[in-house]
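so ive been stuck on this for like two days lol. basically i have the seq below and the ligand is NAP, smiles is in there too. i just want the complex predicted, nothing fancy, no docking runs or whatever. if the output looks off dont worry ill sanity check it later, just need somthing to start from for the group meeting slides
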Amino acid sequence: MIIDGKKVSQERIRLLKKEIQESGLSPGLATVIVGEDPASQMYVRMKHKACDDVGIRSIGIVLTDDVTTDDVITHIKSLNEDASVDGILVQLPLPAHIDTKAVIEAVSPEKDVDGFHPRNIGALFSGRPAFVPCTPGGIMTLLREYHIEPRGMNAVVIGRSVDVGRPMAALLLNADATVTICHSKTKDLVEEVRRADLIVSAIGRARFITKDMVSPGAVVIDVGINQDENGKLCGDVDFESVSTIASAITPVPGGVGPMTIATLMENTFHAAKK
Ligand SMILES: NC(=O)c1ccc[n+]([C@@H]2O[C@H](COP(=O)([O-])OP(=O)(O)OC[C@H]3O[C@@H](n4cnc5c(N)ncnc54)[C@H](OP(=O)(O)O)[C@@H]3O)[C@@H](O)[C@H]2O)c1
């Protein structure tokens, strides 16, 4: 089974648009981007377009990369106080000279639609999530939509980043899976992954997960966005071979990626309602 994130996200956006119209609310999302990284600019453009599609006002704060951490925090504070702004998204990565942790902590937890503020991360790990980070949140939606029940599964999350791997593990644990988190220092990655009923790969290495690492019938979720040696977009998973053995698998593109943006829209509406 191919898990079609594009289709599910379009349906979620359609339903959300209707819900926003009926609510009489006018949700607002502010994005903050520092510098001119083309990939970050593209992601921010996609987020603004999704806002237009769904009926969320978007405000773009664009800062040059000679700003200081304090400058960025000043902008964040004024967005925190702006009643027309329900959600604030700081596009990562920030330039190296900016203190990313301090910037994330400056975002009001009530407007933290990315779910990266330590208070929201803490709530997630204590089993009472407020804002769920968008990529793992989107993956949980995909599992629900395809009736894949994590309860009791051996779930292996590969990657321990704060934006994907760690919150993914917390969500799967909250959903009663038995969770293992692997990373670059894991002793026997192949053995760990082979034991999995559910694999979530968030490594960032082209076609790293091969058929011999996957047990027959496993569910495979590919978060990676990579370019192969020919410059072709691909995931962490060798889709061609792994799809012959997995029971369900997400493609790249068209799997997890579109769900991330749909979840951001849902989180922004959630913030507006609150
Ligand atoms: N589809 C989406 O919407 C979406 C959203 C976010 C990210 N992504 C993509 O997902 C991928 C991961 O993103 P990220 O932000 O989580 O990346 P990240 O911060 O670079 O984290 C990568 C993780 O993978 C682990 N890792 C790297 N090489 C490994 C190896 N050989 N064996 C085992 N673990 C290994 C690292 O381990 P250590 O901690 O030990 O270094 C780290 O925990 C990237 O391709 C990114 O573009 C996609």
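The chain has two domains: 25-109, 134-256. The CA atoms of residues 32 and 216 lie 43 Å apart.
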